[in-house]
Description:
With 281 residues, the chain is mostly helical.
Amino acid sequence: MDLVPERSASTGRIGTVPALLRRPTFVLSVLVVICWSGAALTWHRFGLNPYDNTGQVLSAPSWSHPFGTDNLGRSVFARTLAGTGSALAVGPAGAVLATVIGSVLGVISAYFRSWVDTALMRLFDVLAVLPPLIFLIVIVAAFGASSPALTVIIGVVFAPGIARIIRAAVLVEMGKKYVTSARLQGESALRIMAAELVPNVAPIIVIQATLSLSAAVLMTATLSFLGLGQQPPSPDWGLAINQNIDYIETAWWTVIFPALAVASLVVAVQLIADNIKEAWS
């Protein structure tokens, strides 16, 4: 049996990297993510103070305070940059956890089928019916809003959706010759799943990981906005919007800059996922 064409279908997609680099929206989105990541790692090295009163209350943007000051006189610029820490601490970790759990369960479900597949699919169906935000609110209220707890909660909430998509992709691969050949050669189930199936659905896993990252960042900010995520005096973007929403008409900068930060990161990650999907299609 000729197995090369089927295997090269996924491994040959490495050639999409140059194609991605020729896409302006992909390059720009990656630069946005890099800039926010850099801000999260280096903001404290520039003498920025996101916690103390450094100017007049609700002062408009100026040379001394480029983004103005908030309702407590704190620099909105400093707090916006410092807020990347919480945004990129919980969201990515939750997305990675969701991707790992979802991918493992999706591959196992598709490979073994029978009662394993049925049990997992019924569980996923139950979780899929629950509105994610309401489910998150209930879980956070029960287990707290610490960063580790939020990471686990986000991972568990997004994992079922990823698992269903990976399961569908693996089911397609299960009907191909290389899987049959591996079984006839006596390869173990673990080896077939890890060495044969996962590499061939890797593009889908990458896309789902990127999409879940975008959703996780937005969900983290939403929880903070609702008072269920980071707590004062954290410079978290969602919390900053919540604390200054009453001043949006008279001091728009206290809300607009944190909101633009959330939007820019979420949209950038979403565009990265869309470009990867289009390139691999």
